[in-house]
Amino acid sequence: MQQYELVTENEDQTFALAKQIGEKLNGGEVIALEGDLGAGKTAFTKGLAKGLAVTRVVNSPTFTIIKEYQGRIPLYHMDVYRVSAEDEDLGFDEYFEGTGVTVVEWAHLIKEQLPDELLTIYIYRIGDTSRKFVLEAKGERYLQLCKEIC
Ligand code: ADP
Ligand code: MG
């Protein structure tokens, strides 16, 4: 599996990077975001939403688990940090197989339910405001996307 690395020096650069990725999405993509609390998963999603021409303000869906936004294509923003075994079946499949773009924060917590092909982005805090992004593509369309970005 091929990995690509990028570094941003501040939140604005993260926003710009994510926006650039968002602009290249056509719908049906699944993006898994991994990283500690405060790494920048939600900050990244805000930029991605901008690239999808979402106009509403994107906030963390920690308590709601899933938030939907209308853009050029729909954005489904999930934060599965609080998903427990009991509500395991929240119908994630329908989002993953839908025409929108799905972003999942803490995706490994529902790894059994993730599609085979997806883009996983690991975010590491390497300084106060610097972050390392490691992109890992599973599937041709995601590999292509990584090549265009990096
Ligand atoms: P997560 O969703 O991973 O828990 P958030 O996106 O909510 O994290 O928070 C990231 C925090 O880190 C924000 O307070 C943001 O301002 C700050 N930050 C500082 N530098 C960066 C950067 N380069 N990229 C993203 N966020 C950054
Ligand atoms: Mg978050």
**What general outline do the C-alpha atoms trace?**
globular
Distance between the termini: 16 Å
SSE-based structural type: alpha/beta
- The tally of helices reads 4
User: Can you list the strand order of the major beta sheet?
Assistant: 1-7-6-2-5-4-3
How many domains is the backbone divided into?
Answer: 1
Give the H and E element order: EHEHEEHEEEH
- Estimate what percentage of residues fall within beta strands: 25-35%
Reported CATH architecture: 3-Layer(aba) Sandwich
Provide the gyration radius in Å.
14 Å
Organism: Peribacillus psychrosaccharolyticus (Bacillus psychrosaccharolyticus)
Protein name: tRNA threonylcarbamoyladenosine biosynthesis protein TsaE
Family: Belongs to the TsaE family.
Keywords: ATP-binding, Cytoplasm, Magnesium, Metal-binding, Nucleotide-binding, tRNA processing
Plain-language structure description:
β4, α3 and β5 form a beta-alpha-beta unit. The longest helix has 13 residues. With 150 residues, this protein is α/β, with parallel strands linked by helices. A seven-stranded mixed beta sheet has the order 1-7-6-2-5-4-3. Helix content is 26%, strand content 27%. It has one domain: P-loop containing nucleotide triphosphate hydrolases (Rossmann fold, 3-Layer(aba) Sandwich). α1 crosses α2. The site of adenosine-5'-diphosphate has 17 residues, from α1 and α2.
